[in-house]
Specification:
It contains three helices and no strands. The N and C termini lie far apart (41 Å). The protein is globular, with a radius of gyration of 15 Å. The longest helix is centred in the middle third of the chain and has 19 residues. The chain is mainly alpha-helical. Helix 2 packs antiparallel against helix 3.
Length: 80
């Protein structure tokens, strides 16, 4: 990739992350926002695996699941 392409990707990624937390979730506020956005994406058709948003739903779901694994363990233990 050329430098201008990288700059373009960075710009678009930052814009997307402003609306959708596409990075490891670090706080309860980010978690709440991620859940809200996930529900909106699912309502927009992202639950259908053939929909253009499906891979975005999968990625966001991964970040949510990783946060939940640490902060809301299913083994009945207390959050860390």
């Amino acid at each position: 990739m050329q430098h201008i392409e990288i700059e373009n990707i960075v710009h678009h990624y930052q814009e997307i992350c402003h609306s959708i937390p596409l990075y490891p979730i670090q706080s309860e506020n980010e978690y709440d926002r991620a859940i809200q956005v996930l529900n909106e994406l699912l309502d927009a058709g992202g639950a259908n695996e053939n929909h253009p948003l499906a891979s975005l739903v999968t990625l966001l779901g991964h970040f949510i699941a990783e946060y939940e694994k640490i902060h809301y363990p299913v083994d009945g233990g207390l959050p860390h």
